[in-house]
Write a structure and sequence with these properties.
alpha/beta, globular, binds 6-deoxy-beta-L-fructofuranose, binds manganese (II) ion, L-rhamnose_isomerase, metal-binding, isomerase, Xyl_isomerase-like_sf, EC 5.3.1.-
């Protein structure tokens, strides 16, 4: 396997930390044992857990005002997956990459698949892009794509999604995520019913092109780029879509795509209950679709989402198999560092949710003991599970402290000397 970070660097950094980690792990093990929890069982579950890295996340993002690139920005999809493999090598929590077409130019599919294999990376859900115009396309998406008033434009968007499926098939992916920016900026600009009807028809055409073992995810988002109305604006519309399309269709929940204070964990529970939870785009937000690092603003909410997931996992909920992806934009940090920390935050929320005393919680719920019910969740959330995460990384050959090992490796300086400086300037994600 091709290793982007030298093993010696990781070993040296780990050597300085392993004694403390063992002591911390043993101590936590004793604490958890007193609560009737076997630490190794939790560690094994955490070790088996993975979240996909978005290919678009390893380049520095931007806002609609400006983009301030870092150094050593990936030039193409091959550079991007090398960066993704650094994240996986150090965290051992990100075994797959989620591609975005045509942001990722994938002319050499065979070469890309081989490179993925060499780096030990698989390919997660494919993402189509009909929210911006590709250089040579015949019809513009300025006024929409799958819901556009013009049939030829809709067909072009359908064809693009079908092409994404073909690319994904060659790479070993098994899901397509569709997010559209379609909507309107003015009352009266579009007919809500007609545009949703057109969207459903177009999505049905994409659905027809899905292989038997594939899933299609529709991703809702409250607003942006359309500021008055959005065609797929919330989980209710998203659920209708999944119902209309059929059993291979599910809803994708991007944590940043809701109004502030919306109870996302409850949306997750509803979608699980009705077998329509397809997957996640994890990130964090304070105001809107901020695409901040997962767990950086409200780690308790992330934990509460995972509490629902573990609840479903524990009772073996029918049809429950969501895919997990990160979807972030990094404007002021090294994207590799942000993505490593985010993967760790997701694993942390999972570990914390695994140690919730579910029997006690159920008894408190049934007995209407609101205070003790919420304390039961808090007891798990307050538990410092880092030794479990670090030990799981260490035993898998990763880094006890991924950011420290990464900085010690000099990877960013190395790629900065090899990859030409990328342009700063206007907004948008590279
Ligand atoms: C839209 C979105 C969607 C896109 C990604 C780049 O805001 O969350 O998932 O594919 O951002
Ligand atoms: Mn998203
Ligand atoms: Mn988004």
């Amino acid at each position: 396997m091709t290793l982007m970070i030298k093993k010696d660097v990781i070993d040296a950094d780990n050597a300085a930390r392993i004694a403390d980690l063992k002591a911390d792990y043993d101590h936590l093990g004793q604490q958890l044992a007193r609560r009737g929890i076997d630490i190794d069982t939790i560690k094994e579950k955490v070790s088996a857990y993975g979240v996909a890295v978005p290919s678009w996340g390893v380049g520095t993002g931007g806002t609609r005002f400006a983009r301030f690139p870092g150094t050593g920005e990936p030039r193409n999809i091959f550079d991007k997956i090398e960066d993704c493999s650094v994240i996986q090598q150090l965290t051992k929590a990100t075994p797959t990459v989620s591609l975005h077409i045509p942001w990722d130019k994938v002319d050499d599919l065979k070469g890309l698949k081989e490179k993925g294999n060499a780096l030990g990376l698989g390919f997660d859900a494919m993402n189509s892009n009909t929210f911006s115009d590709a250089p040579d396309q015949a019809h513009s998406y300025k006024f929409g794509s799958l819901s556009h008033a013009d049939a030829a434009t809709r067909q072009q968007a359908v064809d693009h999604n079908l092409e994404c499926i073909e690319i994904g098939k060659a790479l070993g992916s098994n899901a397509l995520t569709v997010w559209i920016g379609d909507g309107s900026n003015f009352p009266g600009q579009v007919n809500f019913t007609k545009s949703f009807e057109r969207y459903l028809d177009a999505m049905k055409a994409v659905y027809k092109g899905l292989p038997d073992d594939w899933k299609i995810f529709s991703e809702h988002k409250m607003f942006e780029p359309a500021f008055y109305s959005t065609v797929v604006q919330d989980w209710g519309t998203n659920y209708l879509i999944a119902q209309e399309l059929g059993p291979k269709a599910h809803c994708l929940v991007d944590l940043g795509h809701h109004a502030p204070n919306v109870n996302i964990e409850m949306i997750v529970a509803r979608l699980i209950q009705f077998k329509k939870l397809g997957g996640f785009h994890f990130n964090d937000s304070k105001y809107g679709d901020d695409d901040l690092d997962t767990g950086s603003i409200d780690p308790y909410r992330l934990f509460l989402v995972f509490n629902e997931l573990v609840d479903a996992e524990t009772r073996k909920a029918e049809g429950f198999a969501p895919m997990h992806m990160l979807d972030q934009s990094h404007n002021v940090t090294d994207p590799i560092e942000s993505l490593m920390n985010s993967a760790t935050e997701v694993s942390r929320a999972y570990a914390q949710a695994l140690i919730v005393d579910r029997k006690a919680l159920e008894a408190y719920q049934d007995g209407n003991d609101a205070l003790m019910a919420t304390e039961t969740l808090k007891a798990a959330f307050r538990t410092h599970v880092e030794p479990i995460l670090a030990m799981s990384r260490y035993e898998a050959g990763g880094a006890i402290s991924p950011v420290a090992a990464y900085r010690a490796s000099g990877y960013r300086a190395k790629v900065s000397s090899e990859r030409p400086a990328s342009k700063s300037g206007g907004g948008g994600i590279v």
